[in-house]
RNA sequence: GGAGGGAUGGCCGAGUGGACGAAGGCGGCGGUCUUGAAAACCGCUGUGACCAAGUGUCACCGGGGGUUCGAAUCCCUCUCCCUCCGCCA
């Protein structure tokens, strides 16, 4: 959520920033109009409340019953007027809040400007020598079933399209990746591992920015009004909801494994083959609560943490800086990390690392106190996949395949694979 | 799921209709004293909002609603926590 004070003070700057996202800047004018209305009503309301408080105290001190009743009668009218104004204020406030919740974050000035993903900028490429096979690399959706480690038919039987079953060494490989990534981030990158609920309340989705705009893409349990998490970022953002953190303790670093659930309504018909885009997938997520002055250093650092994983898997990757039109709703600046998959001939997005600045901190009310006695400020939050599992599995299968159809297990994973060196 | 008991400031804990944004204690910060520290004593110590920006006003005692001139206090409701029973990985 954007700061209403900032919108009041610099509406044109905010509008210009949103224009870069191909977002309708007219919403800012509507917010300003409702805000002005809200302030007008609030001023009247508070004046009346001040009068009521003053006179009520007088009444409490009065001895004469008739005089007392006369004043009380006057105050009954004031009370009714207050009640009317309270309803109006609440209504206008809700309207303002509802509008504010739909406005995306303003991009950082360093984000490349452009309307869509065509304008993202590749900033780094690693692994110049793409694998040069003396056989034709086949895609994971053929390789997996042949090895008996990915079962699409039975996934569909159980849960419908976009679900699959991992079996044997395939399931083991995914579990090994999760355990290994968590260990690397905990031991080498100083994150604290947390295990989180996979379902959350509506207000938690609002805090992270998935609601109210993206309800279509979420699974919702109507009976208990709980939502399946689309990413661990959602509960992590709210982990310190309504808290004032100790500035000396920042940054706080968390890493969590969760399953992620997405209805993929917006991507219907896209990426239907393979395990690239399913309704359920596993992910190891990095998250940091940072001081505002440090958050852009933190962003670079988190990107490195994700790239460390890629490099140790020895799979070629590239890093893209997202342009203003392709940034996620809450992000001010993002990098995407993609692994090369020679079988399907695609770069697979395995990580997105973002600085949301104080956008989520304000929505989830996570603050810190800069100095003892100083006013609390909103923290900056950063999230980054470290990494998203199915696509890493796909990339491993396609990069490590051999002419006989078997797949070599990457050296770093063997201790987590019970020493298995080859699948097949 | 059934029965009962709770929810007050960073923490503990008073407060059953009017001078209560809230006693007291602990913790924290500052000071006096001290070579230094401790002890003792003194002072300060929640969050947010609005504007006419002031020794200003308003709101907040789990959430929401109600009664009243006036609610931490009375009523309704929801959530969460605790105890006992049932069920269960």
Which fold name fills CATH's third level, the topology of the largest domain?
BirA Bifunctional Protein, domain 2
- The name of the CATH superfamily of the largest domain reads Bira Bifunctional Protein, Domain 2
Please work out how many helical segments DSSP would assign.
12
Number of strands: 18
Description:
The chain is of the alpha+beta class and 424 residues long. The protein folds into 2 domains: 4-100, Serine-tRNA synthetase, tRNA binding domain (Helix Hairpins); 117-423, BirA Bifunctional Protein, domain 2 (2-Layer Sandwich), CATH 3.30.930.10. Helices cover 40% and strands 21% of the residues. The protein contains 12 helices and 18 strands. It has helices spanning 4-9, 11-19, 26-61, 65-101, 140-147, 152-159, 169-187, 202-208, 233-237, 295-313, 359-364, 389-399, and strands at residues 121-126, 150-151, 165-166, 192-194, 199-200, 220-221, 226-228, 243-246, 252-261, 280-290, 317-321, 333-341, 346-355, 366-369, 377-378, 380-388, 407-408, 422-423. The chain has an 8-stranded mixed β-sheet. Strand 6 (220-221) and strand 7 form a beta hairpin. Helix 3 (26-61) packs antiparallel against helix 4 (65-101) and helix 5 packs across helix 12 (389-399). The mean pLDDT is 93. The structure holds one RNA strand of 89 nucleotides.
